Amino acid sequence: MIISATELKNNLGKYLRDCVRDRVIITSNGRKIAVLCSYEINADFFEPFIDDGVVSEKEAEAFNLNPKKMSYEEFLELAEASEKRYEYIDGEVYLLTAPGTMHQKILGELYILFYYWSRGKKCVPMLSPYDITLKKSPKDINVVEPDLVVICDLEEHLNQKDRYMGVPVLAVEILSESTRSRDTVKKLDLFMSSGVKEYWIVDPFEKEVAIYSFENNEITRIEKFKKEKTAVSCCFPDLKIKLKNIF
After folding, report:
1. Does residue 103 share a domain with residue 86?
2. Which of 75, 79, 136, 220 is deepest in the core (most CB within 10 A)?
3. Do 114 and 229 have their domain in common?
4. Which is it for strands 208-215 and 198-203: parallel, antiparallel or unpaired?
5. Using one digit for the tens of pLDDT, what is the confidence trace for 139-167?
């Protein structure tokens, strides 16, 4: 079926119904310019072109197998144009997938415990998705989404877009199979090199919490807590988390 753009404008409802049975070709000044067709019938064709922000484990794994290199400015353009979530570490882009149920359950428990600890304090916990921009040097800019951070200078470092541009005191990552190596190597180095004072690596598989303390770009202390132990923050001695409450 071939119709003009004017016909489409005047009878949109009719042609939306018609396109379920047959493709509707639209013309302007005698030239074919567009096709109106049923999404349901042609979903297999259109799906790869639709950026709905939903990322499968396979898609993320394939993307991150050979991380794409780009400048910080190019990364900002990519992140702004896409519904998907990315991290930018050492000039490479990593695609984030939706976390699993176990991950989210642990994160929820942790946030509640951190929240009640923070009441009445200047320091506040913030949940992912929440971009944290960290600099190893003025030109070495990174953007990550830790699962949980504790920020003690929030008001002082909000920009005009309501984005936090300071350095959290404490960062938390909950391991998954797809992020384990990045969380335990690349992010450990990034947090150590950019001014974060403390890093918690929460391992749901081993039911373990490892706490790293940093000073002058070096690891000054490592403590690991398992089973019935209570994890105690180095920066905040009154922040104590019983592992049985999160695992």
Report:
1. no
2. 75
3. yes
4. antiparallel
5. 999 999 999 999 999 999 999 999 999 99
CB neighbourhood size of 179 (10 A): 22
CB within 8 Å of 233: residues ≥ 6 apart: 170, 198, 211, 239, 240
* Model confidence band, residue 44 (pLDDT cutoffs 50, 70, 90): low
- For the residues of 51-67, what is the DSSP string, one character each? --S---HHHHHHHHHSP
156 in helix, strand or coil? helix
> Same domain, yes or no, for 6 and 105?
no
CA-closest candidate to residue 95, choices 60, 133, 50, 145: 60
State the Cα–Cα distance between residues 165 and 168, nearest whole angstrom.
9
Cis omega (within 30 of 0) for bond into 204: no
pLDDT at 49: 44
Boundary residue ending a domain (65, 93, 121): 93
Residues 73, 105: one domain? no
